[in-house]
Design brief:
13 strands, nine-stranded mixed beta sheet, four-stranded mixed beta sheet, binds adenosine-5'-diphosphate, alpha/beta
Length: 287
């Protein structure tokens, strides 16, 4: 099987996480927290997941300049994602998510999308005829539409976070990926185009539809759950990669379920993204 080439158009963020006893109410200051920062953003997470699962990955995105850019791109660079399409904008900030977490794991998140919001269709230069293109909705929809028009390979969109999109996008995508909340937002519009729709159901697994009919279903693998951040992003990358490799639908869904199950067994988004060898070993153990 040759290595598939994927282009991912999406967000790059730095997640700044303060863990405290309790979350503040409006106007309150909570002290005594501990701090950590992690690279994040759905686009970057999916690019890293696809790379670790064995694809050649090019990313198209925008960040600011300076240390936040370097920190946000560190793992992508380390693992060999092609970042030549990630523009550094001198007048913009790298996207940041300010995350407060209490001791029960409840969180409050404020996202300052910064440079992500300035990504423009002119940035979307899809080179080298990739086998698949994968987008999410944390960058302007015009960029997703530009990627659709590039017309190279399998065109997949993770409709997250849910928001209004042109009907043409829902109709023309080869694969739409949604969780239950997103599926409720888009309703029957998801199945208008006759392409594939993957619905993820958390610990209940995932279902794949084609032209509105169920064609495959995968139960979630039973694993110790540490942190479900990154599970959805891993699922998207793994499913697109497996379909780009030409795997049959049920097998591709199973691969995506196994990869995302491994992502819930570790803390954090990017640090928890599994490698292909891990997924293959995990699948062998299940047989
Ligand atoms: P999102 O984070 O986008 O809402 P989901 O929570 O639906 O996505 O999770 C995506 C996929 O991750 C699921 O379809 C499943 O394969 C896997 N997954 C999520 N939670 C678990 C879990 N507790 N145990 C095993 N697999 C899980």
């Amino acid at each position: 099987m040759s290595t598939p080439a994927l282009t991912i158009i999406g967000s790059v963020n730095l997640d700044l996480v303060a863990s405290a006893e309790k979350l503040p109410v409006a106007g309150e200051t909570v002290t005594g927290a501990t701090f950590a920062q992690y690279p994040g953003g759905k686009g970057a997470n999916q690019a890293l997941a696809a790379r670790r699962l064995g694809a050649e990955v090019s990313m198209i995105a925008r960040t600011g300049e300076g240390p936040n850019r370097d920190a946000a791109l560190a793992l992508l660079r380390q693992d060999g994602v092609d970042l030549s399409g990630v523009v550094a904008c001198p007048d913009e900030q790298t996207g940041v998510a300010l995350i407060a977490v209490d001791k029960a794991g409840e969180n409050q998140i404020v996202v300052a999308s910064g440079a992500n919001a300035t990504l423009s269709p002119e940035d979307v230069n899809i080179e080298g005829h990739p086998d698949a293109i994968l987008c999410q909705l944390e960058v302007p929809t015009a960029c997703v539409m530009a990627a659709l028009r590039a017309g190279s390979g399998l065109f997949a969109v993770n409709l997250a976070p849910a928001g209004p999109v042109p009907i043409e996008l829902l109709e023309a995508a080869d694969l739409l990926i949604v969780n239950e909340g997103e599926a409720a937002f888009y309703g029957e519009g998801l199945h208008r185009g006759g392409g594939m729709v993957a619905l993820t159901l958390g610990a209940e697994g995932a279902v794949l539809y084609r032209a509105g009919k169920e064609v495959a279903r995968a139960a979630a693998f039973a694993v110790p759950v540490i942190d479900t951040t990154g599970a959805g992003d891993t699922f998207c990358a793994a499913l697109v990669l497996a379909l780009a490799e030409g795997r049959e639908e049920g097998e591709a869904l199973c691969f995506a379920s196994a990869a995302s199950a491994l992502a819930v067994t570790k803390a954090g988004a990017q640090p928890s993204l599994p490698w292909r060898e891990d997924v293959e070993a995990f699948l062998r153990e299940q047989d």
